[in-house]
């Protein structure tokens, strides 16, 4: 991301402060109360979720691909808790199959280069019956808002690296996940075209997780 990435990392927490105060903190807390056991968070950014992991989390691994974000993440982790920080994109997770009980993704799948591949990697590193916890931008169900998203998406991608109009829920399901809990919600205080969001949990059955990933094995 170069200079843009450095600036984005510098202003991210300040940019999100109003949204956090207006309800995003509560959404994070409610979602992460479900995290337990061996937990992986992809695209951890500056560490906005750290405060909401409870004692039921046995181990916490955070990945972040961008060096400017990762430096801020490492400072935030500090010595507060036993956390492993790894530089890695969601599309190439450096972990063995079935390594985690839970994978967390908050406002990440809008920005990955290859969303289907990232979700296949999440599925791979989750144990059978493991859970994906997610809070993500999505394409609006309202046709007028969806058209606005299409018009603004190029600008949004250039400024913050976010494709706000992706059919993320459909992509989660296409990756072999079954959604077990879902709320259609919004990012507080966000512009109308990036407000639509989903909050939920999905699991992959033992039968599905044992199925070879044809897309990956072909490569």
Walk me through this protein's architecture.
- By secondary structure, the protein is α/β, with parallel strands linked by helices.
- The protein has one domain: Vaccinia Virus protein VP39 (Rossmann fold, 3-Layer(aba) Sandwich).
- Helices cover 39% and strands 24% of the residues.
- The chain is built from seven helices and seven strands, in the order αββαββαβααββαα.
- It has helices at 2-32, 67-77, 115-125, 143-160, 168-174, 206-209, 214-217, and strands at residues 37-41, 57-63, 83-86, 100-106, 126-137, 178-186, 196-203.
- The chain has a seven-stranded mixed β-sheet with strand order 3-2-1-4-5-7-6, with helices on both faces.
- β2 (57-63), α2 and β3 (83-86) form a beta-alpha-beta unit.
- α1 packs across α2.
- The radius of gyration is 17 Å and the shape is globular.
- The two termini are 27 Å apart.
- The model is unreliable at 209-219 (pLDDT under 50).
Keywords, please?
7 strands; 39% helix; Rossmann fold; alpha/beta; 7 helices; 219 residues; disordered C terminus; globular
> How are the strands ordered across the major sheet?
3-2-1-4-5-7-6
Number of helices: 7
Which value, in Å, is the CA radius of gyration? 17 Å
Q: For the terminal residues, how far apart are their CA atoms? A: 27 Å
Sheet having the most strands: 7 strands, mixed
Strand segment count:
7
* Dominant shape: globular
The low-confidence parts are: 209-219
Q: What are the secondary-structure elements, in order, as H or E?
A: HEEHEEHEHHEEHH
CATH topology: Rossmann fold
> How many domains in all?
1
CATH class: Alpha Beta
What's the CATH architecture name? 3-Layer(aba) Sandwich
Mean residue pLDDT: 88
- Main structural class: alpha/beta
What share of residues is helical?
25-40%
Looking at this structure, what is the CATH superfamily? Answer: Vaccinia Virus protein VP39
β content, as a range? 15-25%
